[in-house]
Every structure is written in C-alpha cells, then in structure tokens.
C-alpha cells in the first residue's frame, strides 16, 4: 500500500473542519460562533486564563481575543476578573450562564466525536489519537514557523506560566 504524505495535512484539515461544522450545527441555539465556542471550551475545560493564553490557545492575535472577550462579556458568557497571582493582570472566567450549558455542550462534543469515529474499532481509535498527539508534540517541539510553542502540550494545552496582558485597572 502506498502512503501519500502530501495528503496528510489536507486530511487533518478536512477532518477538523467537518467536526467543527457538525458541532456548530448542533449548538446554534446558543448563538455563539465557532471561535467563541473554542474560547469558551478552553476556559470551561482548563479554567480561568489570561487573554494572552487564550490567544495562544486559539492561535489568533491578542487583539482578536480582546474583541472576542468584549463581545462574550457583553452577552454574559464570560467575565474578566483580577488575577489572584498578579494584580496587574486580568483573567477570563466562564460565567454562570456558560457553566449552566457546559454539561449539554460536553454531551454534544462526545456525540459528534462518537459519530465521527463510529466506523473505527477501538484499537484504531487509540492508534489515531496517539498518532495525532505525537504529530502535535513533534511540531510543537520543532516548529518551522519560528513561533515558540514549547509550552503547548496536546494533552493539557497551556502551562500556567503563560504571559498575561497588563491592565491599568
């Protein structure tokens, strides 16, 4: 069997896009964009974090996260609080409104993932997950982009040592 490495990136992109599209279709009643869901999911899963950490996690510019958090704060999905470890920083925290829908959203994620993997035996699922973690880990350790990704762990994402944005408040 011939393996075409040049298709791997496209296949990964297409699979990710299909998963995001299916998730978005099942969560439309909440009125959040895919990027807003990613931000909210990060904060719900990993706890409060700085906007700089969120920008790194979402792979977007910090100013984009600032605007995104502004909109989400106005809609009641998140709030900004003083960082207990550094009073010059603000952290983004999931609101009670977000906490209330979290179990249902987690269920949707599990359903979409299960449906996507339905045709794969357990052994293949485990191998796929291990291979993806290995690819992410390898690229984070040896980035061609020159971007420092040493604190990106595919298993638990950001370390707590992320840089924060300073505030005048």
Automatic annotation (TrEMBL):
GO terms for molecular function: DNA binding; DNA-binding transcription factor activity. This is MarR family transcriptional regulator. The keyword Transcription applies. Gene3D superfamilies: Winged helix-like DNA-binding domain superfamily/Winged helix DNA-binding domain. Keywords: DNA-binding, Transcription, Transcription regulation. It comes from the Bacteria. Residues 5-141 form the HTH marR-type domain. SUPFAM superfamilies: Winged helix' DNA-binding domain. It holds the Pfam family MarR_2. Residues 145-169 are annotated as: Disordered. It comes from Gemmobacter caeni. GO terms for biological process: response to stress.
